[in-house]
Every structure is written in C-alpha cells, then in structure tokens.
Design brief:
Number of helices: 15
Number of strands: 17
Strand order of the largest sheet: 2-3-5-6-9
Structural class: alpha+beta
Number of domains: 2
Helix content: 25-40%
Length: 428
C-alpha cells in the first residue's frame, strides 16, 4: 500500500502516472479527492528494478510507453513526461508533434450474439486502456505480470511465450476441426464465403484445406499454399480493396473507395482480419505487408502525425511546412479536405461548417488534429473496424501487447528473401 499527494491540475476521476517503488503505474484520482490531498493505492504487481527498466526501454517508441494501472490494465504515458519544461508559447503552439491517438474498439452488444455491433474511434493516447484479461486462459485471471515480463524480453522469448498461450486456445483435433474446399479458379470468393460462414468459436479449430478436383492430403503444404495465394490475391491493388503506401510500394493501405468497387467490401475486410489472425494463430505467412498505422491499430499502439507519411506523403509534408510559417493564414486553408473518388472530387468537412472556418495561428493545432483523425481512421473507419473484429475473432487482443508493430509484421510476413544475383542482373 502506497500513499501519494494528488498533483496540482489533476481532476477527480482523472488518471495520472507516478513512480512507486521504482515502478511506473497509473493511479486514478478518487471522486472525493482534490490536488494536494493524500490518497492511498496498492501496487498491482512486483517486478525487479532490472525488469522495470527493460519494460520502459521496450515500450519507448515514438515518445510513448505503456505502464500498468492499479486496475490491472495497460495505459499509455509520454516517456519524457518527467522531463517536461516550461515551453514558450510558440513551441506550445506546435505541440502537435507530441500528440498521439489510440483507436478504441468497443462491443455494443453481448459477445454471445451472432453478429455483435462495434464502435471504433480515436481517443487521446493518455485516455486509452487495454485489459490484461484473456477469458479463455487461466480462468479469466489477469495476465498483467506475464505480459509485463515478456514484453521486456528478446523477440524469440516473446514468440515462444505467445505460442504457449495460443496452444491453450487451440481446439484439439478430436474435439472438432474444419475442412475448407475451394476452387482454384474461384479462389478468393470461395475462401471468403467459407471463412465467413465459420462461427467465432470455431475459428480456433484446426483447418484443413483442399483444392477441388486436386486429390491430396493437407499435411501443411496445402495450407501454406492457400494462405500465400489468397493473401496475394486479396492485397492486389487491382482488386480495389487495397492501394500502395504513398512512400513504399512494399506496403499496402486500405483504399478509402473500396465500397465503390466492391459492394461486399466490409465482408472482405472482416475476412482479411480473420485471414491475418488465423495466419498468426497457425504460424503461417501472408503475402501482404501493411502500412505502419494499421499494425498500430491492431496492437492498440499510439498513432502520431509522422504515421501520416505512409498514407499521404504530400499531406504530411504540407502539415510539417506549416510550422515554418509566421502566419498560416497566407495558405488560405479551411477545415475541409478534398478526396478523389474514382475521378470525382468530393469535399469533406473536418468539423461542422468547416468550409467557412479559416485556419489561423490560433486554431492550426485543432486543424492538424482533425487532419490526423480523418486520415488515420475516419475515412476508412468501417474497413478498419471490420478488419479488427475479424482479427480478434481468432487472436485475443491482450496477448498481442508483448509485441511492437515491427515484430507483428515480422510474425505475419516473415523475412524477405532477396536474390542479390537477380538484382544485379537487372539493375542499371
């Protein structure tokens, strides 16, 4: 049990970070407490000082790190919050570089329903929370201590622990398994229909695949071919669900106009989430690399203004240039964005009556935050929501918290094989 004075500026019900016994924790100010008043709280777990330092270093990416709250959930705090100094008013104006949001996915209906509804929004990173409870493991007790410990370990140890947890979730063969039959000439449609017909409870059963009219026993090779071929087709930009990253044609981002090209696009994005989740669950590799913001959304990591570059490099560059202007009004900007939907220009207001609101030095920070919200989530909200729900149909979100976004990409896509001789032969 610890005792602490409520810091100045903290309101009742607001969470604040502190160091207790060398461990960073989040504490919520009680409803009846005021700044300067003493409150008591209990330290949730016990770790050695070396483990604590490792966790801080491991989570310290983009200026943010996770810490454990007294309610045994993870919260995000700025890693440099202890070193904050009084900034000039001009520096404070451009604090957008330190702004981060975390997607919040909430179920709006009981999990027992056939198709529970969900809501998805971006919340400030400091307000985001992640439960450390996996209902199907350890009788629903918190995995906080294990998650904290393994998050600090080398990648190989993380993966080994993750596989142990997956083994607890996998349904034994004798308790039921799934057989998926597909036609090679109609591979994507057959695969989507088959996978979408499976209940969430059955997604953790062992899958066996068969290409119709091709006799053979799936001892692993057919499954590998299925994951490779389906993901290769699914992430092909010609199918119009995905498009290339603005800075890297190795990575794919969601096509905001996917609904125009495909009436069933949300079913395909839900299928994509299940495909990626099942590949991770079954130790398979998929063909498509995603842009960094999508990996962050899957993990519930903070997205920052720098993540915009992978989605729209021009917009990111122009937003950064605003910092060098003495008066942003010379740009004649308003609170709108213009989108190209298959050759048709469409204007979207970033806030009510945004077309008549000029961007000034006073409201430029709000403008950048609204640009971040729109481009990082709002314009592809339904697609991202479908993908996340499909992914978590297979892999519990809490188990992913030991990985960072680069490690998740490595697990899903593996290491690339580069033929240096082929590269030399075809390079001028």
């Amino acid at each position: 049990m610890f005792e602490v004075n409520v810091p100045q500026g903290v309101r009742p019900g607001q969470a604040f970070a502190l160091i207790a016994n060398g461990q960073r924790v989040m504490v919520t100010c009680p409803a009846n407490a005021r700044p300067g008043q003493k409150i008591r709280f209990q330290l949730p777990i016990k770790l050695s000082s070396d483990e604590i330092q490792s966790i801080k270093l491991n989570y310290q990416k983009d200026g943010w790190m996770r810490c454990l709250s007294t309610d045994l959930s993870f919260h995000w705090v700025r890693s440099d919050c202890d070193n904050d100094v009084e900034a000039s008013s001009r520096d404070a104006l451009w604090a957008f570089e330190r702004i981060a949001f975390v997607r919040e996915l909430r179920s709006l209906a009981p999990s027992g329903t056939s198709k529970p509804a969900h809501s998805l929004q971006l919340v400030p990173a400091k307000d985001a929370a992640l439960s450390t409870v996996v209902p199907a493991i350890n009788n629903g007790t918190s995995l906080a201590q294990e998650l904290s410990r393994y998050a600090a370990m080398p990648f190989q140890h993380k993966e080994a622990w993750f596989r142990q947890q997956i083994a607890k979730l996998q349904v034994p063969w004798e308790d039921g398994h799934i057989k998926i039959n597909v036609r090679r000439e109609n591979l994507l449609e057959d695969s989507m229909e088959a996978t979408e017909s499976i209940t969430q409870a059955d997604m953790r059963k062992i899958f066996r695949f068969e290409f119709i009219s091709e006799p053979g026993v799936d001892a692993g090779g057919v499954a590998r071919e299925w994951f490779q071929l389906v993901s290769d087709t699914l992430f092909n930009p010609d199918f119009a669900l995905w498009s290339y990253s603005s800075i890297n044609q190795m990575c794919m981002q969601i096509n905001p106009s996917s609904g125009i090209a495909n009436d069933e696009h949300l079913r395909y994005f839900h299928f994509t989430g299940r495909l990626l989740g099942k590949a991770l669950f079954d130790r398979q590799i998929v063909a498509g690399h995603l842009v960094r913001p999508l990996y962050k959304h899957i993990l519930g990591w903070p997205v920052t203004v720098a993540d915009l570059e992978q989605l729209d490099a021009d917009t990111y560059t122009n937003l950064c240039k605003l910092k060098d202007l003495d008066d942003v009004e010379v740009c004649c900007l308003d609170f709108t964005v213009t989108e190209d939907h298959w050759g048709t220009a469409r204007t979207v207001e970033l806030k009510p009556d945004g077309a008549s609101c000029t961007v000034t030095n006073t409201n430029v920070d709000e403008y950048i935050q609204l640009q971040m919200r729109y481009r990082l989530l709002d314009r592809v909200r339904e697609q991202v929501k479908a993908l996340l729900v499909g992914f978590y149909d297979v892999v519990p979100e809490a188990l992913l918290s030991v990985f960072d976004f680069q490690e998740l990409e490595l697990l899903l896509c593996g290491l690339p094989e580069i033929d240096i001789q082929d590269w030399r032969r075809n390079t001028e």
